[in-house]
Specification:
With 67 residues, the protein is mainly alpha-helical. It is 52% helix and 0% strand. It has one domain. It has 3 helices and no strands. One of its GO terms (molecular function) is DNA-directed RNA polymerase activity.
Length: 67
């Protein structure tokens, strides 16, 4: 079974697995509360999968603020 999008493709967008997982989990929680998805016709029916698809589509990204 192949997972889409692949972890390799996602790490080209966000190079830290920890940040990627945290971002997807937060976005999944937000989607479960609002039922708003940033992409049309997601392949996944689970919120985490949809969040990862949003990362792949450049709709969801990490804002690197000041330290």
């Amino acid at each position: 079974m192949m997972l889409e999008p692949s972890i390799d493709a996602l790490q080209e967008k966000i190079n830290s697995k920890y940040i990627l997982v945290t971002l997807a989990a937060r976005r999944a929680r937000q989607m479960s509360e609002t039922n708003k998805v940033l992409i049309e016709n997601p392949k996944s029916y689970k919120y985490v999968g949809m969040a990862l698809e949003e990362v792949q589509a450049d709709k969801l990204f990490v804002n690197k603020g000041k330290k």
